[in-house]
Amino acid sequence: MSDAPFLLLQISDTHLGADWHGVDPDECLLRAVEAILEMPQRCDALVVSGDLSQNGTPAEYARVRELLAPLDLEPYVLPGNHDLRGPLRQAFGLPGEGDEHASHAVDLGPLRLVCLDSTIPGTEGGALDEGRIEWLDAVLGEERDRPTVIAMHHPPLSTAIPTFDAIGLAPESRAALAEALVRHPQVKRVIAGHVHRPIAAELAGRAVLSVPSTYLQSVLDFESTKIEMVPDPAGFAIHAWRDGTLTSHVQTF
Questions:
Q1: Cβ distance 101 to 174 under 8 Å?
Q2: What angle do CA 247, 242, 148 make, to 5 degrees?
Q3: CA distance 17 to 235
Q4: If 0-12 CB within 10 Å is exposed, 13-18 middle and 19+ buried, where does residue 253 land?
């Protein structure tokens, strides 16, 4: 039997500081951590794919760190549309300054994780302008033989839900990312959050997966004129790398 798989844990959209429908996001994240710790195998790395906080305050980010601490994993984070880059940088040691995009790459051993900042400060939607595709090309070009996972906040897919597509990744950015993926076949998967639902799609022959929130989930309604959240089962994802294959599991709790 081959060696144990390398397990990349993905948590998304914790929204600490929110009070939607009277549900406490702190309690939800606490239950997520408890569920992860009850798993028979320990995860090897952790990525948090945006919207860690509701208001982008230092106190909210400090609370995220506190609640994640029992996992004993350094959280690799990227901003969501509710986050503020400056306080997020200070709390988690991200590179860059001020309002520069907070993209960065991490060596996880058997995998390379590229955290691609898709946010536009002050807006809910996402884009990969301002040199972010050029940055991605350069970073991916550094290690063309390393199996790589790209993590974003805004998933590069069409949800077929008008309210979410209106605040999703800009179509021209999705097309530019597809072209970059063609140039870099070592990318095995693109993972994201933002839509508070597990959604699977494909971009340039690569699997794209959005994962549930640890907080509230969005209603599956293909005609709704507004975004609605409900206390459906929350979840997280485990991306297992074994024998040259990446397999993604969504676990509810």
A1: no
A2: 70
A3: 19
A4: middle
Question: Cα–Cα distance between 14 and 128 in angstroms, integer?
Answer: 23
pTM over 0.90, yes/no? yes
pLDDT, one tens digit per residue, over 175-184 is 999 999 999 9
Tokens at 190, concatenated: 């693109």
End-to-end CA distance of the chain: 30
pLDDT in tens, 133-188: 999 999 999 999 999 999 999 999 999 999 999 999 999 999 999 999 999 999 99
Handedness of CA 114, 75, 242, 198 (dihedral sign): negative
Q: Topology of 6-252 in CATH?
A: Purple Acid Phosphatase; chain A, domain 2 (3.60.21)
> Rounded to whole angstroms, how far apart are CA atoms 59 and 57?
5
- With beta carbons less than 8 A apart as the criterion, state whether 50 and 61 touch: no
